[in-house]
Amino acid sequence: MKPLPSPAGKQRPEPSQSLIDERVRAAFARVPLLLAITFDEDLSLADVEVQPCPGCEWHDEVYIDVDAEVSALVDELKRVGASELLRGRTSARTLQ
Predict the structure, then answer these.
(1) Distance between CA 33 and CA 31 in Å, rounded?
(2) Tell me: the pLDDT tens digits for 70-80?
(3) Distance (Å, rounded) from C-alpha 12 to C-alpha 92?
(4) How far is CA 5 from CA 1, 12, 13, 14, in A?
């Protein structure tokens, strides 16, 4: 009979920068008006930039959508143990 593998062999893989980049790109794709997000050391939003709308104001719905997407991003990265990589980080949409 084979011995059972040790629990140490079942550790979660170390979160990678590419995982963060992939999830952030997906968030920008789902919310086209989102241009940039900055997290502080407590994983709270320090700054959010949305597409400017000259001569108009964005409705609360836009900010609610952005807040929901960013909260989902942080929650997802916490579940996979990668949220530490967001601390103090700014991510911006790549403009072409």
Answers:
(1) 6
(2) 899 889 988 88
(3) 28
(4) 12, 15, 16, 20
The model's pLDDT over 45-82, given as tens digits with 9 standing for 90+, comes to: 889 998 888 888 878 888 898 899 989 988 998 888 88
SS3 labels along 40-64: CCCCCEEEEEECCCCCCCCCHHHHH
Q: Are 48 and 66 in contact (CB under 8 A)?
A: yes
Q: Which two tokens stand for residue 32?
A: 């086209």
Task: Taking each helix axis as running N to C, give the angle between helix 17-30 and helix 60-79, from 0 to 180 degrees, rounded to the nearest 10.
Answer: 160
- Cβ–Cβ under 8 Å, residues 77 and 9: no
Both structure tokens of 43: 């994983």
Q: What angle do CA 26, 32, 36 make, to 5 degrees?
A: 75
d(CA 84, CA 78): 8
Please state the pTM of the whole predicted model.
Answer: 0.73
What backbone phi and psi angles, to 5 degrees, belong to 88? 70, 15
